Write a sequence for this structure.
């Protein structure tokens, strides 16, 4: 099934859901005509379940050495004569033809599907729809942020990280603004993609139509809109403007998840519980529901080099189960994350994003003590016994921030995007080394593996989608 067929399927499905779920629509709208003509219709359309393969980050988490394969025997995968994407990601094989192995791709097809069948439909119809004008204005603003954020994820998966010196020449992705499912959207440069992202964000914020608090964690309010702006500006290395956005966002939500509450329980019961839709620190919730952290296996390097001593999850909880790690991946001494009621926000954002973005922006603008204060806001909720960290300069502060960030965002999109961003800049690049059964595998900061291939389901339809690596 190619991209157009995917989109057709979802447009038809959405219309059927609206028609079957709300009988009043079929009572007054002639059969076969556009149902999306009222504010209430578009509001229903925006109630997207942001879960599924569009938001899977397993490949990226394997690449950046957060985890091993998901329930695959690692030694057997490495020794196999069959070339697979799993083998490439585990061994960092730059010579492999990844594009030939990528017939379809969940994030590519899924994210564009949401852009085309939700955001762009709302933006196309909002100005001519009937109903509450205040709600219609809000829906447009939400759709602008949705479109901006999903394109941000796409450009960071399939293109180079933003570099001010080369962004106007680096190949990016298509920025899709229409609902013409027969159109071929030409690939933009990285700079053009980011310019479009900022245009959408600024349009949403300028409307002043976003709610202070969204109705649920899969709708968009001011905090998430400002967080997206900050994330984009940080990628563009505009730390002063990004700082202003994070500080404004924190006015709407500054609640942080606190692991210290686990310590009052017997150790065998110290397993965190998190409801993805109601967690107080969520700014926007998106996840691959079939690949939550439960049954993920952290790497040797994560366990030994990145976790701080005294980390509550690693050292004082019952989350990591060492009895099943070997059964899952065939490597000794590796536990499995088992917390089935912990719904991690893998592809959205939380207040931890805001605090750590604020910390980095302060550090990058030579406000070292203030930046470390933000890093320690996370650490005091994660480490027992807690000792405040102090840094004398930017370089020391960035080491502390990178270590804290790496564990805070374990098994999520953020580690992949942050590492890729730091690597492209060069100043705080990270060479990843993993050792498996005595063999060391190295991922260079400038490796082409950091750029994932467009799937053949897209390149066969759109000839402008030449690979970006």
């Amino acid at each position: 099934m190619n991209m157009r067929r995917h989109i057709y399927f979802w447009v038809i499905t959405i219309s059927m859901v609206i028609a079957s779920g709300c009988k009043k629509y079929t009572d007054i709208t002639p059969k076969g005509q556009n149902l999306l003509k009222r504010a209430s219709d578009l509001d229903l359309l925006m109630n997207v379940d942001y879960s599924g393969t569009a938001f899977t980050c397993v490949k990226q988490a394997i690449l950046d050495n957060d985890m091993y394969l998901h329930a695959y025997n690692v030694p057997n995968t490495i020794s196999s004569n069959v070339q697979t994407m799993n083998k490439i990601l585990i061994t960092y094989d730059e010579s492999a033809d990844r594009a030939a192995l990528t017939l379809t791709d969940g994030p590519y097809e899924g994210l564009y599907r949401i852009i085309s069948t939700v955001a762009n439909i709302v933006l196309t119809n909002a100005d001519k729809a009937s109903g509450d004008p205040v709600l219609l204005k809000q829906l447009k603003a939400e759709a602008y942020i949705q479109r901006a954020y999903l394109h941000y994820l796409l450009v960071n998966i399939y293109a180079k990280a933003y570099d001010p010196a080369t962004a106007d020449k680096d190949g990016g992705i298509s920025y899709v603004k229409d609902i013409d499912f027969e159109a071929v959207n030409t690939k933009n440069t990285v700079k053009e993609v980011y310019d479009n992202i900022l245009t959408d964000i600024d349009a949403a914020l300028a409307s002043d139509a976003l709610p202070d608090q969204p109705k649920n964690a899969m709708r968009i309010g001011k905090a998430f809109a400002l967080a997206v702006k900050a994330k984009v500006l940080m990628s563009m290395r505009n730390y002063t403007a990004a700082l202003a956005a994070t500080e404004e966002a924190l006015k709407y939500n500054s609640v942080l998840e606190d692991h210290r509450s686990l310590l009052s329980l017997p150790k065998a019961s110290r397993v965190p519980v998190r409801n993805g839709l109601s967690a107080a620190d969520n700014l926007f919730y998106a996840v691959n529901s079939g690949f939550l952290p439960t049954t993920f296996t952290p790497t040797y390097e994560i366990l030994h080099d990145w976790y701080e001593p005294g980390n509550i999850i690693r050292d004082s909880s019952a989350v990591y189960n060492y009895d099943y790690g070997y059964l899952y991946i065939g490597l000794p001494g590796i536990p499995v994350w088992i917390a089935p009621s912990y719904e991690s926000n893998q592809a959205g954002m939380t207040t931890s994003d805001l605090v750590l973005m604020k910390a980095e922006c302060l550090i990058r603008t030579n406000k070292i003590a203030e930046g470390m204060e933000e890093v320690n806001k996370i650490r005091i909720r994660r480490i027992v016994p807690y000792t405040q960290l102090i840094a004398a300069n930017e370089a020391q502060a960035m080491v502390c921030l990178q270590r804290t960030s790496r564990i805070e965002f374990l098994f999520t999109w953020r580690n992949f995007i942050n590492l890729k961003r730091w690597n492209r800049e060069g100043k705080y690049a990270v060479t990843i080394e993993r050792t498996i059964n005595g063999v060391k595998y190295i991922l260079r900061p400038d490796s082409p593996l950091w750029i994932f291939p467009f799937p053949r389901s897209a390149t066969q339809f759109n000839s402008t989608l030449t690979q970006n690596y």
